[in-house]
Amino acid sequence: MDKLLEVKGLVKNYITESETLHILKEINFRIKYKEKICITGESGSGKSTLLNLIGGLDKATSGSIIFEDMDIANLEEDELTDFRNKKIGFIFQDHYLLEEFTALENVMIPYLMNDFNKTKGMEKASKILTEIGLKKRINHYPSQLSGGEKQRVAIARAFINNPGLILADEPTGNLDEKNAQSVLELLFDITVKENHSLIIVSHSNQILKLAGKNYHLENGKLNLI
Ligand SMILES: Nc1ncnc2c1ncn2[C@@H]1O[C@H](COP(=O)(O)OP(=O)(O)OP(=O)(O)O)[C@@H](O)[C@H]1O
Ligand SMILES: [Mg+2]
After folding, report:
1. What residue's CA is closest to ligand 1, atom 10?
2. Residue 4 lies in a domain
3. How many domains does the chain have?
4. Does 46 contact ligand 1 (Cβ within 6 A)?
5. Burial of 115 per CB tally in 10 Å (0-12, 13-18, 19+)
6. Is the CB of 14 under 6 A from ligand 1?
7. Which end of the chain is more exposed for a tag (fewer CB within 10 A), N or C?
8. Which domain holds residue 76?
């Protein structure tokens, strides 16, 4: 099976008190196993909306999102939670680490939601953190980590359940140029090594070069560039 995800006729409207906003108008695209695609588009064009729909964080107005053989739109809430936890790794612009937990614990949490084996979770989390160069920081709390380090922890957390698809929404938007570059390289290296597919929203020229395909979102339509 070659195709991991197929988005068909995806529409998202937001209904506000005064108007209906047509944010996504019949989006169609596919992503294969191991494929990496980048999406650009102006602020407000609907990039986060699209990623949130694919990741099952929000419901589409119409259309379908078929992941492997499942239409995400038809999943019940508990099935959706399971899908997100096992199949999707999210990385956002803000790291969303839990401040009261260490780096190691933050990475372990999605694992424990799946398999409550603390020893195994700890081993896995510490292995990934070591691989991404944070061995000496595993017991640090988020407040004791730099911005780039926090984002690396967020990457480790996204990968711990070995999801098929990584969704990264401007993952380096809050980092300076040098840090952004090394975090992006790390994200790509680990995605390639683990054979994951990646959809990344980024304006980085480097990503445009690394991604297999680049799309631009404009006026509710996704165009290949
Ligand atoms: N819950 C909501 N209700 C109404 N409008 C919304 C809602 N969420 C988002 N929008 C609108 O939908 C549009 C797309 O938002 P989205 O966050 O997807 O943009 P984006 O492309 O990710 O922008 P940015 O680059 O600034 O992150 C925006 O104009 C936003 O105001
Ligand atoms: Mg956004």
Report:
1. 14
2. no
3. 1
4. yes
5. exposed
6. yes
7. N
8. 36-56+72-224
